Amino acid sequence: MHKTYFRHLYHPELKEPILVEGLPGFGNVGKIAARLLIEFAQAKLFTELYSPSLPDYVIVNKNGICHAPRYEFYASSTGKTHLIILTGDAQPSIDDIGAHYRLCGEILDFVEEHGCKFLVTMGGVPMPHPAGEVYVAATSSKRAIEIMEKGAAIYGEGKIMGATGLLLGLAKSRGLEGACLLSATTGLKADREAAFSVFKFLMKMLGTDVGKVSKGKLKNNQ
Fold this sequence. Notes:
nine-stranded mixed β-sheet, 29% helix
């Protein structure tokens, strides 16, 4: 494989969908939050992405079946909001900066073809003593303040690593809008508590009532 390959399973009918990204990272917060969203929204897998930018190993399931590392795009709507949910097995090596830029650019090309104009990335931010805090960074001060007023704190004077940050930065350069939601985590293990905090805040941000949904009612996605 010499270039990124998109394997299309079906073509969803979407109207100006919001891209929601959750990939492996600190505490696996983004990936777990994305899986919670996929389950809650009953999203359906519509495209798989395979790329030489991803690591050189295979993922093996509990039945001994393997597949190359991939990203997965799911489609759903919560109320009147259409979503493309991006999750996956891994990110490019931290040392391969070019791979991160290429892959994020290809992802943005893909979602723009589906009419996406706004995106939300999700991840964890390392804190020694996390207490459920959710932080926001955005492509504009207006957007950041709007989200802060819903209960998040501004994430200032820091860095957001990997696709969680780079997708947002590259989107802004294309004239797209977006925000990053970060939940405090020690980052030492898969942090389901932090992921659930991001998931609940995202639902609040999208104007969707999750009612009495609790962590126990959703599968233990890691």
